[in-house]
Amino acid sequence: MSNFELSSPQSYVNQKQATQVPNHEQKFVVQFWGVRGLIPTPGSNTCHYGGNTACVEMQLANKRLIFDGGTGLRVLGKSWLKQQQPIEAHLFFTNSQSNRIQGFPFFAPAFIPENSFHIYGTAASNGASIKQCLYDQMLLPHFPYPLQVMQSELQFHNLNPGKVVKLDDVTITTALINKTQKSIGYRISWQNYSVAYVTDLQKEIDAAEQESITHLVKDVDLLITNISTPLTFHKTESDNSHWQTAVNLAITSNIKQIVFSHHHPDDSDDWLDQVQIEIASAFPEALIAREGLILVVGQ
Question: How many domains does the chain have?
Answer without folding.
Answer: 1
